[in-house]
Predict the structure.
Amino acid sequence: MSETNGKGSATPLLDELEKGDWPSFVTQIKEMAADGNEQCQQLLELLERSYREKIGHWKHGGIVGVHGYGGGVIGRYNDLPEEFPAIAHFHTLRVNMPTGWFYTSEVLRKICDIWDEHGSGLTNMHGSTGDIILLGTTTDELEPTFQALSEADFDLGGSGSDVRTPSACVGPARCEWACYDTLDLCNDLTQTFQDELHRPAFPYKFKFKCSGCPNDCVASIARSDMSIIGTWRDDIRIDQDEVRAYAEGGMNIERDICGNCPTKCMAWDGNELEIDNSNCVKCMHCINAMPKALRPGVDTGATILLGAKAPIVQGAQLSSVLIPFIKLEPPYQEIKDLAERIWDFWGEHGKNRERVGELMQRVGLGNFLEAIEVEPLPEMIAAPRDNPYVFYEEYYEEEDEEAEEEEPAAVP
Amino acid sequence: MSETNGKGSATPLLDELEKGDWPSFVTQIKEMAADGNEQCQQLLELLERSYREKIGHWKHGGIVGVHGYGGGVIGRYNDLPEEFPAIAHFHTLRVNMPTGWFYTSEVLRKICDIWDEHGSGLTNMHGSTGDIILLGTTTDELEPTFQALSEADFDLGGSGSDVRTPSACVGPARCEWACYDTLDLCNDLTQTFQDELHRPAFPYKFKFKCSGCPNDCVASIARSDMSIIGTWRDDIRIDQDEVRAYAEGGMNIERDICGNCPTKCMAWDGNELEIDNSNCVKCMHCINAMPKALRPGVDTGATILLGAKAPIVQGAQLSSVLIPFIKLEPPYQEIKDLAERIWDFWGEHGKNRERVGELMQRVGLGNFLEAIEVEPLPEMIAAPRDNPYVFYEEYYEEEDEEAEEEEPAAVP
Amino acid sequence: MDTQRRTDFGPPDFRRFLPPVIKDNYGKWKYHEILKPGVMVHVGEGGDKLFTVRAGSPRLLGTKRIRKYAELADKYCGGHLRFTSRHNVEFLLTDEANIDPLIKDLHDLGHPVGGIGPAISSIVHTQGWVHCHSAATDASGVVKAVMDDLHEYFDGTKQIPGKLRIALACCLNMCGAVHCSDIAILGVHRRPPKVQQGLNKVCEIPNVIAACPTAAIRPSTVDGNPSVEIDESLCMFCANCFSVCPALPMADALNDGVSIWVGGKVSNARSEPMFSKLAVPFIENEPPRWPTVVQAVRKIVEVWADGARPYERMGDFIERIGWPKFFKLTGIEFQKEHIDDYRYAGLSYKRSAQLRH
Amino acid sequence: MDTQRRTDFGPPDFRRFLPPVIKDNYGKWKYHEILKPGVMVHVGEGGDKLFTVRAGSPRLLGTKRIRKYAELADKYCGGHLRFTSRHNVEFLLTDEANIDPLIKDLHDLGHPVGGIGPAISSIVHTQGWVHCHSAATDASGVVKAVMDDLHEYFDGTKQIPGKLRIALACCLNMCGAVHCSDIAILGVHRRPPKVQQGLNKVCEIPNVIAACPTAAIRPSTVDGNPSVEIDESLCMFCANCFSVCPALPMADALNDGVSIWVGGKVSNARSEPMFSKLAVPFIENEPPRWPTVVQAVRKIVEVWADGARPYERMGDFIERIGWPKFFKLTGIEFQKEHIDDYRYAGLSYKRSAQLRH
Ligand code: SRM
Ligand code: SRM
Ligand code: SRM
Ligand code: SRM
Ligand code: SF4
Ligand code: SF4
Ligand code: SF4
Ligand code: SF4
Ligand code: SF4
Ligand code: SF4
Ligand code: SF4
Ligand code: SF4
C-alpha cells in the first residue's frame, strides 16, 4: 500500500476507508496503484482532494467515442489537469456484459488483459444498467480498446439517447421460477437492436429489463422503460406433502402465508392448502416462502409494462401494465414489433429528453394506446378515472340528427 | 291532478313520473298547481317542454337579493318568458335551517304560511348544503319574504363567495357516538360568522360541516372546506358480556369484525375481545357493528380537516388533516381563530374562484401551514414526499463558513 | 317593511325544537338498535327510549305535503320531527305503540319507510331542469325512475350487505356527494360551449379565459368586437367558462347525457374515504324514465349485492375483486374514456405485475 | 486496427459461459434451499444440485481482484462464476465439499459471504466523486462506511425479518434503484446553479431554459452577451439544467449533502412495488466516514428489524404502524420538507380521519 512516502500517508482520509469489515474500493485502487499505475495513483490523490474539499473534480465530457458508434463511452475530464495529468482524460467504456452476468475464468482474464493494457485497470462489475464498466482511459486508447474487445467478442453498451444494454435475471439458468427464458429474450433483444443501441436516434434513453417472475430480480418495474416480467395464467402447482412438511417445520402458514396473500385467496385447514387461483394475482409470496411445496403454473409467459424512470425531468415513474399477458417464444416478433411501434410514435412526438413514460402521461395513456395500436384493457389501470374531465373527440351537430353516420366515439 | 284538459294531459311525459312506488316530485308540483297556483302550473309545463326537448330552460340569474345581504338568493329566469310569464323570474331563497334539521309542526307550518303567501309554495327540504330551499318567487317578493321570515326568526343562508350555511349531524341529540356537541358548535359557528355568511368577501365559497364521529354522517370530508369530525384519544369502551351476546346471536366476530379492522388491532378468542388501542385508528367499524358492546372512549374531541370540494376548477378534493386532535368546548375560540387565520391568508393569496383546498395545494401544504401558524405533523400526510424536488429556502454563502448565523432551515 | 330591520340573526336555536326526550338525554344516549326496516330505537343511559321512523321523501316538497308531515308529527310525536342529511324525514316518537299507525299513515301518503342500516337510502340530488341553468340532465326525474326501481332495497324487502349511497348531480359542479358515492349519476355535456354574439357585453374576457382549466379559450375578434374562441380539442366540457359567462352556453339536446360512477365513500369505517370512479362514460338522456340509466344502476347494485361480504361497501368490494372483474360482471365495456388523462393520471395506471389472468 | 472492422456484433452469447450443470438443467430446476448464510442449493427435476456461494464485492474492482475471482473459480467451480444484479459475485459449484474451503478463501481475501434470503445485500450504488461530474456526495465511500456498520446483516450474524435493499445515488439522476429501495441514500444539492460567464458559447440557451421543470430559468443579458438568470425561489436543485449545460455548476461544498429515503420496494411479493419516501431531508457530507448517515441508516434498520413481522418489507412495516409512529421510533424530526409540494402533492395528504391519537 502507498501509505508511507516519508512523512505519513498521502491519502489520510481515504485510508480511513480501508478500515472495517466490508471490502474496500480504496484498497482496490491502491492495489492497482501499487505497481506504479499512474492513473490509479493520481485518481487516489484526486479523490483524497475531493474528500478534503467535499466536492467532486470531474467535468462534463466532450464528444468522445469509437469510430461508427454514437454511444458506449462516457467522456470525463478532471478540472485540475495540470496537477493530475495522467487522468486529465479519464473516459469510461460501457461494455455489454454476457446476458445474466455469466463468465468463465478464461474470459474474465481476457478482459483483464485488455484493460491492463489499454486503461486504468479499474472496473465496475457491473454498472447499474448492467454493463461491464471499464473505468478510465485516455481518448487515444478508446479505439484500440474497442478493437481488442471486439477480438474477444465484446461489444460496447449504450449511452446517450439510445437503447441501453438490456439486462435479465438469472432466470432459467438457475431459478426454478423463471416463467420465460429471460436470458434468451434479453440476448435476442440486444442482438436485434444493435443499431438502436449503438447509434442514438431517440428523444432519450430506452431500457429493457427482463425478469423471469414477479419477484423482479432486475428491478425492471423501477428501472426500465420496457419491463418484461414473467407470470403465469393457470394454477399454482401444489405439493401438499411438502406444505405439511413446512407446517411441521414450524411455519405459521395461516398467519405468515395466507395472512400475507394480497387477495386473501388462500385457505389452510391444517392439512390442505387451498388456493382460489382465479383471485391469485401472482405476487409470488406463497411460492417464495415455500419453494419446495409451491411452484408457478405451467401456462407461463410475461406481463409487459412500460415507462419506468428516475425523477428527471417530470418525476420518477414505475412502469405500468401495457400487455397483461403474452407468450414469449423465439423469435419474439410480437414484442419487437411492439417496441418498434412505440419508438415510431415516441420518435415523432417525444420532446428532447422526454422518456417514453413521460410521453405516455403527457398525451394520455388512452391516446398513446391508440397510436401504438393496443386495445385499452382494465388490467392497465389501478382504477378508472375519478375526475369527469373527459376529452370526447366528436359530437353530434344539429344536422346529424337524422343522418347518424358521424357517431360519437363513446356512446356505448 | 291536472291531467285532463279536454284532449288528454298537457304533461304526458311528466305524468310517467307519477307512476311507481317512490314518492313523486311531479305529484308534489301538481298538488300545488291544483288550486290555480300559476307558478306551479307553468313550471310543470316548462318542465314538460324540457322533457320533450331534452334541454333545460333556465338562464343565469342577474344580481338579485334582499337589502343588505350579498347572498342567499339564487336568481333565475326562464328563456321563454313570453310563454311562461308567471315564472319569468323564479328565484330561490336559501334559508338557514335549524341546526340538525329539527322542527316542530308549528314552525314548519309557519314557514309554509310564509311561502304560500310570497312564493311558489315549492321547497326543497333541504338543499345539498342543508338550507331550507324556497324554490321560486319573483324579484319583488324577495324582500317581503325575507321580512316575513325574519319575523319568524329565520335568516338567509349563503351563496356566492361567502361562508355557506354550516351543517351538523344529529350528534348528541340522538346519537350515542357524538364525540363533541356538533349541534352547538355548528349553531355557534353560524351565529359567529353571520357577516361572512351574508356578505361575500372571499375568493370563493367556504363550507363548514360538523360530524360527531368518523362515520361522518354529513359527508364533511367530501363536501366542506373545513371538516370537523369527532374522535377520541383514549380506549374504546368494551362491555364483554354484550360482545359475547353478539357472538351468541350469530355474529362472526373473527371474520366480520376483527377481519375488517383496518389496522388488525383486534383479537377475539371466543370469549374476550381485545383491542390494541394504540393502533386503533378510530374508524368506527367495530363500534358500528356492535353498538351495545362497544363505545368510543371518553376523552373525546375532533379532527379538523381542510379543503374538500367538487371538481371545478382544479379537480375534486377530499379534506386532509389539519389538526389531528382538538378538544371542542364553548366558546370554541381556537377553531374560530384558526378559520380567521385561514381566511386572512386565502383572502390575500387566493385567486378568484380558488377554493382554500386548491390554494393549499398551489402554495404547498408546508408553506400554507407556516402562513396559518400551524406546526407540520406527520398525521397530516398519508406519506412523506417520494420525489426529491425540495424547495430549500436558504443556503450557505461562502462567506458564511465561519459566521454560521444564517443557518439553512433544513439542517437537522 | 317597518321599524328596525333585523339582519344577521342566524337560524333559530335548534334547542327550541328538540323533543323533551332528547332534551333529557342530550349527549347521554347509550346505544341504539334497528327494530325493523326504517325503525330504530335509541336508549339513554337512564333507560329512556326514543323511536325513530324514517320515511323516504321526494325532497322537492310542496307546502301541502309539509303540512301533512306536520299533521303526522302532531298525531304521533308531540309535534316533533326532523330531516336527515340525505333529505329523508324522520319522526321522533316516545310511544312504541305509535310506530305502526304512523307507518300506515306514511304508506297511505305514498312514503316508503326504510333506509336505515344496510339499505339504499334516498338519492342525494340537485336541481336539474327544475331550476338550474347548468344542467346536462334532469335531477328529480332520474332519481324518481331509479328509486322506483330500487325501492325494495330501501324498504327492506331486499337484503343487502351494507350501506349503498347513491347521488346524482346534473352537471360537473357536482352539488352533492357525487364524487364520493357508492354509485353516482352525473350529468355531462359533450360539446364545447357555443360562443354567443356580444359576449364582450356580458362577460369580462380575461375572466373567461382564466376560467378554463385546460387553456382552451383564447381571445379573438368577431365582427370587430372582442370575443373568444374555443380550441375544441382542448375542451373537456367542464362548463366552468359558462359558470362565469352566460354567453357560453353548454347545454345541447343532442350531446348531453349521463355518466355513472362507482365505488366512492365518505365514512372512515374500515377503509378511508374514496372518490367514485368512472363506470359508464355516457348514456343519452332518455326522458321521462331514463331506462338505460335505471338498468345500468340496477345491474351494478345487483353485482354488488350478490358478491359483497357483510359491511363491504361498493369500493371495497371492487377493490377486492379487481376492476377487470367488475367490468366483466357488469358487462360494461372498458373504453379509452375510463383511463384517466387529467392531472394525477399517471398514478391511476397499474404500476405492478399483480394481475389476475 | 486492421482488415475488416467488426461492429454491432453484440455481447458474446451467454451460453458459452454456462457451467455444464446449468446447461443440463436449464429451465428444469425444481426448487432451492438456503443452506446457510450466503449459500444455497438449487435442485433440478432430475436431482442434480447446483450450489451457489455469494460474496459481497466492492463493485469497484481492479483487474488484480478480478483475476483472484477467476482463480477461485478455477479452484472450486470449473472456472464458472457470475455476478448478480446487485453486483455481488456468485461462485457456482457442484461439489458440496468445496463450499467451506471457498468461503475460507473468500474470507481471507476480505470478502464476506452472505446476502441471500432475509438479509441486507450489497448496496446498489453509483460513481460519486470517483468518476461523475454531477455528484453531490461520494458513492463508494458512503457505501463502504454504511456496509462496515451493517455487515452482520449481510453475513447472517444478525437475523432480520425479510429482505432489506439499500441503494445510493450521488445525485437526483438516481442511477440506481434509489426511488424504490427499502432505504435509499441520495446526494442532494441545495444551492441553485451558478451561472458561468460565457455560457452562451457552450450551451444552447433555449435548451437550457426548456430543461427546467419549474421554469426557474429565464433569458438575460450579461455584459452584452446573452445568458440566463435563475429565479432562486423556484429552484429545487434538480440539476437538470447542469446536465444539459456545463456552465451551470451545482456542486457546492457548503450546501451539498445527503438525504435518506425509506420504504420503497420493487418486487410484487405481497404488496405492489412502491416508491421510497423521504425520511431525513438533509445531512451534511462528512467524509471520510459519514457518521451521521451511518447512524441514521442503522437506526432505521434497527427500528424495522425490531418491529417488522416475518417477510415484512420496510414500506409495509411503516404502513402498518403509521408514519407518525415511524418518526417517533426513529427520532427523526418531522419537518415541512417531508410534505410533498410537487406534482402529485395533494394525493399525499392524509385524506381521512383514520388516525392514531
Ligand atoms: C455508470 C452509471 C452509474 C453506475 O455507477 O453504475 C451511470 C452513470 C451516469 N448516468 Fe445514469 N448511470 C447508470 C445507470 C442509470 C440508471 C439505472 C439503470 O439503468 O438501471 C438510471 C435510473 C433508471 C433510468 O434510466 O431512469 C440512470 C439514470 C440517469 C439519469 C436520469 C434519467 C431520467 O430519465 O431521469 C441521467 C441524466 C441524463 O440522462 O442526463 C443519468 C446520467 C448519467 C451520467 C451519464 C451523467 C450525465 O449526466 O452525463 C453518468 C455518468 C457517470 C460517469 O462518470 O461514468 N443517469 N442511470 C450507470 C450505467 C452503467 C451501465 O451502463 O451499466
Ligand atoms: C341548490 C343546490 C343544489 C340542490 O339542489 O340542493 C346547489 C345549486 C347550485 N350550485 Fe351548488 N348547490 C348546492 C350545493 C352544493 C354542494 C354540496 C354541499 O354544499 O354539500 C356542492 C359540492 C361541494 C362543494 O362546495 O364543493 C356544490 C358545488 C357547486 C359548484 C362547484 C364548486 C367547486 O368548487 O367545485 C358550483 C359552481 C360555482 O360555484 O360556480 C355550484 C353552483 C351552483 C349554482 C349556484 C349554479 C351556478 O353555477 O350558479 C346552483 C344553483 C341552482 C339553482 O338553480 O338553484 N355548486 N353545490 C345546493 C345548495 C342548497 C343549499 O344551500 O342547501
Ligand atoms: C340521520 C343521519 C344523520 C343526520 O344528521 O341526518 C344518520 C344517522 C345515523 N348514522 Fe349515518 N346518518 C346519516 C347519514 C350518513 C352519511 C352521509 C350520507 O349518506 O350522505 C354517511 C356517510 C356515507 C358514506 O360513507 O358514503 C353515514 C355513514 C354512517 C355509517 C358508516 C357506514 C359504513 O359502513 O361505511 C354508520 C355506521 C353504520 O351504519 O353501521 C352510520 C350510522 C348512523 C347511526 C346508526 C348513528 C346512530 O347511532 O344514531 C344513525 C342511524 C343509522 C342509519 O341511518 O342507518 N352512518 N351516515 C343521516 C341519515 C341519512 C339518510 O337519511 O339516509
Ligand atoms: C441473484 C439475483 C438475480 C440475478 O440475476 O442477479 C436474485 C436471485 C434470487 N432471488 Fe431475487 N435476486 C436478485 C435480485 C433481486 C432484486 C433486485 C434488487 O435487489 O435490486 C429483487 C427486488 C428487490 C425489491 O423488491 O426491492 C429481488 C427480489 C426477490 C424476492 C422478493 C423479496 C420480497 O419479499 O419482496 C425473492 C423471494 C424471496 O427471497 O423470498 C427473490 C428470490 C430470489 C431467489 C431465491 C430465486 C431463486 O429461486 O433462485 C434467488 C436467490 C435468493 C436470494 O438472493 O435471496 N428475489 N431479487 C439477484 C441477487 C442480488 C444480490 O446480489 O443480492
Ligand atoms: S425474477 Fe423470478 S425468475 Fe428471475 S431470478 Fe428472480 S425469482 Fe428467479
Ligand atoms: S402468489 Fe400471491 S396472490 Fe397468489 S396465492 Fe400466493 S400469496 Fe396469494
Ligand atoms: S356522524 Fe357519528 S355522531 Fe354524527 S350521527 Fe353519524 S354516527 Fe352519530
Ligand atoms: S375502531 Fe376501527 S380501527 Fe379501531 S379497533 Fe375498531 S375496527 Fe379497529
Ligand atoms: S349540479 Fe350543476 S346543474 Fe345541478 S344544481 Fe348544481 S350547478 Fe346546477
Ligand atoms: S367547458 Fe371547460 S374546458 Fe371547455 S372551454 Fe369551457 S372552461 Fe374550458
Ligand atoms: S447518480 Fe448522478 S452523480 Fe451519481 S453517477 Fe449518476 S449522474 Fe453521476
Ligand atoms: S437545478 Fe433544476 S430547478 Fe434549479 S434551475 Fe436548474 S433545472 Fe431549474
Remarks:
- Confidence is low (pLDDT under 50) at residues 1-5, 402-412 of chain A.
- Chain A is about 30% helix and 15% strand.
